[in-house]
Amino acid sequence: MAEKAFLNLTDVSKAFAGVQALAQVCIEVRPGEVVGLVGENGAGKSTLMRILAGVYRPDSGTLLLDGRPLVLHSPREANLQGIGIVFQEQSLLPNLTVAENIYLGQEKEFSRWGVISWPALRAAAKRQLEKVQLPIDPATRTAHLSFAERQMVELAKALALEERTERHLVILLDEPTSVLEQREIDILFERVRALRNRASFVFVSHRLDEVLHISDRVYVMKDGKVVAQMPAAETNVPELHRLMVGRELHAEYYREARQREPAKSLVMQAESLTSEGAYRNVDFVLRQGEILGIAGVIGSGREALTRTLFGFLPHSGGKLTVAGKPVRLTSPDQAAALGIGYIPRERRVEGLVLALPIVPNITLASLATVMKRGAIQGSKERQLAESWVEKLRVRTPSVDALCLNLSGGNQQKVVLSKWMNARSKILIFDHPTRGLDVGAKEEVYDLMRTLSEQGMSIILTADTLEETIGLSHSILVMRDGEVTARFDASPGKKPAQVDLIRHMV
Amino acid sequence: MTLKRNYREQIRGLAPLLVLVGLVLVIGVLRPGFLSWDSLVVTVANTAILFILAAGSTFVVMLGSIDLSIQAICSFASVIVAAMLPGYGYVAFPVAVAMGLVTGTVSGLFHVWLRIPSFIVTLATSGLLVSAALLFSHERAISIDEAGRARLAWVTGDFLGLPNVIWVAALVTALGIWSQKYTPFGRYSIAIGAGEPATWASGVRVNRYKVIAFAISGALAALAGVLMAGREGSGSPTLADQLLLPAIAAVIVGGTAITGGAGGIGRTAVGALIITIVRVGMTFIGVDIFAQQIVFGVVLVLAVALTIDRTKIVIVK
Amino acid sequence: MALNQSPATPTIPERGQVTAGPKKKKALSQKSLERIKSLAPLAALLVLSLLIGSQNPRFFDFFNFVRIANSAAIPLVLGLGATFVILLGSVDLSVEGVLALGAVVVAILVHNDMNQNSFGWLAPLFSIIAGAAIGFLNGLIHVKARIPSFMVTLGSWFVGVGLATLILGGTNARILDPGIRDLALTRFLNFPLAVWVSIGVLVVAWLIERFTTFGRHVFAIGGGEDLAALSGIHVDRVKVMVFTLAGAFYGIGGVLAAAQLGQGNATIGDGRLFSTITAVVVGGTSLSGGSGGVLNTLVGVAIIAVLGNGMVLLGLSPDIQQAVQGVIIIIAVAASIDRQRMKFVK
Q1: Which of B91, B123, B307, B313 is the most exposed, having the fewest neighbouring CB atoms within 10 Å of its CB?
Q2: Residue B43: phi, psi to the nearest 5?
Q3: Angle between helices A408-421 and A378-391 (to 10 degrees)
Q4: Nearest to C91 among B119, B301, B314 (CB)
């Protein structure tokens, strides 16, 4: 392996709507090297990969490819430079054949005057498929393939770059193994090793043992920065854990002093709750005034579980009990009628009607509270909105301001007031502090403590482990659709992040 | 109309009204007779039916959907009135309106239960109604006899110096504005159009309100048909065929955006008046009545282009 | 048409929408389900034919078959145009207007009873150009002004009808040119020339769909527009071409309609939108785009034509034809498992 780097990122930064996703990241990839990239959810790995793949443009910093500056405006341009990215089968069009997918957008090579030569296209596709040992007919419709097969087609698609350019390739692998069986993982790794003289790889995964197995060097990212870098042979999984999450838990930050023991009565209970294809046999209880945190990486099933509890994704098996009565939540209105509220992850899409002012957004879930004899009372509604805005300290020139114009933190407070006005007894917080600055986050934590003190029960799916541990009374850890651990998170007895990570990845 | 907006939006909201006033003045200058009381009354009366037809669609368009069956409902209502007046008397009117209500409800239910796009569902129901109208009327116009016309006096008559159709239209306007401002249906129609996912995730029974919107669209279209039967003195399966486009144009030109969040019956009234006056103007200039369709087509596209909120549509299909 | 999508820049979708763990082998049953779904329209056609034939054996007469083919000629041409638009995931409501325009253009340009023109075979060419022009405008306004296709084409529908009326100036133009009339009257191998024209259009459409990059790109855009764009496909360009092509096909339909009727008038397209869309949907082309195609539309048109023919043979009033079409389009859409139906339907 030559010493000089083939791909160089220097001081690359990227921010989204006020949140710093990458902060002056420096990474280098040498020819023929496999570089592993690990980090928690939100550490910046995805953003980095997407910048390399041409999907995003960095705000600042430089990219050098083989010594030359690299500016990418689209994945297509990245491809032309020899950079390919393998996603988890999401970048294949299911209604097209495998051959078409492999060469999507590149059909010119196989056509004359706009007319495609199918035999040529199929033969070329077949060659790529052979590289990944996938013995399927390239004329198969992609929708008919299994997830694993699609993953291999994705890899073949990236490897097809080989024929299009003489250059050394850079192949980005984004969580490629989570849908593969062991046999297929072995093939993948074997292929990666075999291609070293032609390509360098960047391998992102939360499966740390695999990362160590295949990589030459490993970068650890945290909060948008690179915190460590070492040869794979010189580290191990526990150390990586520590580097990924090692952060002082500021008890004050999460207002732990305000965490009180919840009441004994149960407001919600799940027994062997199952949703086909998402999670299975989930048991939990939620006590009144409790904050129950659910930890898990993407694909662990916690997102689906959260959606089930508000009626977006009815469960297919097991029993869910709310306020003592067994229910099957088939729609949000049913959940809301039972006193459940939902602070959504996609605040701008599911939390607020952005084009409308604050007033109607606050009463959207509880219009009846401002109605008398069948008519909405405009002035009463306005007063109500004003009192919430004051109570939660929403910073806005007036209650008639469109929610579109509020900052993220203030938008979140309006969402909260909506459910507080609806007198919800159980609130589901789905990534509540996503996209908020530190000050706004602290305000949300304060509000959560207040709600909990007032007897409201909360189910929390947080952005970071730290938040989960700091805020919750109890924690449920999930992996691959099942509950793998439970923790008591009373103040003073909070589990360490490494304890949780062990059950998450 | 009830929800205040910031200044730029407010001016945009007033634009149709300003256009209307401008048009009236321009034509008034070219033809001074136009501004006489009688002439204005006639203009408003001529607008009334188009307005009622369009008023129903307003809620549907506010949701982001479309109702392509209004002209079929309108025509069929006129057929019901013409066919039933001789034998059944006044009961023909509620039957006609009920037909519209039921048709709209059925369209709405198919739309929400079977998740069929509104333009298809309403095309389908319009097909069903066209067939029904053809069968009912044996494929021809049915003229209404003396006795029937007497019963339609409430349509053709005057009250306090204004044609009754204007009073009916005024009533519809008042009810429409009231329901938008004061009823959950009105509130949710705007919310669903402006942000359906958020409305859904706030526990609102979105499907129910969608069905109501289609039901109202059908009922008002039928009412318009009843009024038309009164004015034309006959009912026919093709009576309202040319009214679909002007009705939708009225809604959009009035300022109701198909992206939702803005608009309403009051705006549709302004839009309907603009459409009628543009028509009047074109007739003055001598443009053929069918060719006026071209103008409406262009106007429609322009109006949509101006009122649509493009930040809300990422992928336009 | 799913509006109100998440207002973020279109990126390659977040992983994590994939479910974890126990999901490996669902591909198999999905494939057999799809198989059944794709054969359903053909099966429906066969069942329908058998049902009608069992009640009235004259259905299976050769000359009845000719009649069916003849009644299917124009709907087929129209349906083929609409198919490409629907494959994109868009909608084209302008069928009737463009057809009327095409019919009128050909009627006034050939030897007719209204003016002195006699352009002969050049005239249909102008119809096609007129249709393509409107289609081109549809596509252009749709992509440049980002107005949903159903709005743009709703407008151009009436623009087409209006132009047709304007050109005629309120009268009708009866066609006296024998050449054009031949399309409807002369037979070749027992079938009217119009049928052969429609077959020709079918072949062209099929070749475009199967063998051109343009055709494949239409499917790609329908299957996933943001992905297609990121892969370097010129989405806007393809869309404009699709609408232009559709307009051209509707223009051809107009020529055939004028030939059939013997004259051109502005109402010649009335009611055809509905049967066109019904045929495409019933044939199995998905409204959300990306699946289906020209052969599907052939089956769909056949079903509609057989239905119409059957109703006559069974003595049912033609008045109920639209009602029947209404019912079957609802069944067809409701029965299709569409990606779109998972999102917010407008």
Answers
A1: B91
A2: -60, -45
A3: 120
A4: B119
A426 near A362, Cβ under 8 Å? Answer: no
pTM of the model: 0.82
Q: Which two tokens stand for residue A7?
A: 């791909």
pLDDT of residue C247: 97
Average pLDDT value for residue range B255-261? 73
Nearest residue in C to B128, CA atom: C323
Residue B8: per-residue pLDDT: 56
Full domain range(s) for residue B64? 46-281
On the question of pLDDT at C202 being above 90, the answer is: yes
Chain B residue closest to C88 (CA)? B317
Mind telling me how many Å the CA of C118 is from chain B's nearest CA? 25
Which other chains touch chain B, taking contact as 3+ CB pairs less than 8 Å apart?
A, C
Residue appearing with tokens 């049928």: C195
On whether ipTM exceeds 0.90, the answer is no
Judge whether A352 lies within some domain. no
| Interface list for A 80-109 with B (CB within 8 A) | none
Residue B242 lies in a domain: yes
Residue B304 reports pLDDT greater than 80: no
Torsion, CA C335, CA C339, CA C344, CA C345, rounded to 10:
-40
Cα atoms in the Cβ-side hemisphere of radius 13 Å centred on C152? 24
Q: In this structure, is residue A176 part of a structural domain?
A: yes
Of A245, A260, A288, the last residue of a domain is A245
- Interface list for B 164-223 with C (CB within 8 A): 195-197, 200
Domain membership of residue A367 (yes or no) is yes
Q: Given an 8 Å threshold on Cβ–Cβ distance, is A364 in contact with B260?
A: no
For residue C227, the chain A residues in CB contact (below 8 A) are 91, 93, 104
Provide the shortest C-alpha distance from residue C75 to chain B (in Å).
17
- Number of domains present in the structure of chain A: 3
Range of the domain at A272: 252-339+425-504
Contact A304 C31 (CB under 8 A): no
- Beta pairing, strands A60-65 & A7-16: antiparallel
Taking only the tens place, the pLDDT of each residue in B176-205 is: 999 999 999 999 999 998 889 999 999 999
Alpha-carbon distance of B196 to C7, in angstroms, equals: 13
Measure in Å the smallest separation between the Cα of C274 and chain B Cα atoms. Answer: 7
**Overall domain count for chain B:** 1
Q: Which residue has the higher pLDDT, A435 or B224?
A: B224
Side chain identity, residue B73 = I
Is the confidence at residue C221, as pLDDT, over 90? yes
Taking alpha carbons only, the member of C159, C163, C3, C152 closest to residue C92 is: C152
- Among the candidates A408, A423, A438, a domain finishes at A423
Both A39 and A162 in one domain: the answer is yes
Q: pLDDT tens for residues C99-143? A: 999 999 999 888 877 777 778 788 899 999 999 999 999 999 999
Neighbours of A111 (CB within 10 A): 18
State which residues of chain A have pLDDT below 70: 1-3, 17-18, 88-89, 178-179, 246-251
**Residues A393 and A432 occupy one common structural domain:** no
Residues from chain A contacting residue B200 (CB–CB below 8 Å): 332, 350
Q: Whose structure tokens read 């509604």?
A: A381
The answer on A309 and A213 residing in a single domain is no
Residue A36 lies in a domain: yes
